[in-house]
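As a warm-up, study this chain.
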Amino acid sequence: MSAGSTLRALPTLLRVGLSEAVAYRAEMFVWVLSTTMPLIMMALWTAVAREAPVGQYGSQDFVRYFLAAFVVRQMTGAWAAWMINYEVRQGTLAMRLLRPISPLWGYAAENLGAMPMRLFVVVPVASFAVYTVGWQSVPQTAWGWVFFLVSLFGGWLITFLVNVAIGTLSLYMESSTKLMDVWLALFFVCSGYLYPVDLFPPVWRTIIDWLPFRYQIGLPVELMTNAHGFGDALGLLGRQWLWVGLMLLLSLGLWKRGLKRFAAFGG
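Now compare it with the structure written out below.
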């Protein structure tokens, strides 16, 4: 299918994704509840910071950070790995392959179509953050908003492409969901989801700066809370989009090779 035809099909695919999110809103609510770890960590770290600041973070800084982490987590979530695994096992991936558009566009649209539903959660939390800890909870400049939105989209792309790459491995093995569990464990530790990456020792911080995990959550959170000046933010965005490019090449390469091995089974 040509690029023009794909672009014309995307609005319909997004509407289908939104309809599915509305139809399965109870499942979406359960998913939201499963991503409330930043709120738990906020309670823990603010209690610690009442005694003395932790690094550069006081109690209000932790409140600002973890409310932003909750917002970013909602807007960068993806679940394509589980969908691909399920469809490969059931053989229903064959039905997607019969359509005149790549299944990857379908997975992306289904994930993005849920974003309006997530905004019902995100907007109140962001408003609460501004109300409780001030306007530093959101970008203060025009370039800050642009960089934040670009980093948010980049964080989603990395998450989605990693899901595609790991999900595609189910075309090479019985199931790749355990690999996704390993990725998620590393993500929780290294992304800034459970604690700011600033709190790592310098050696570990250097390593994390060159891994993809920080650019899924940590960087958008830092830009949302005005943690970087223009130059530093631009450099970090460059690293993030370098990872987007690498993950795109990896996921597409695995997908094209995997389809040659695909044989529908199950039922």
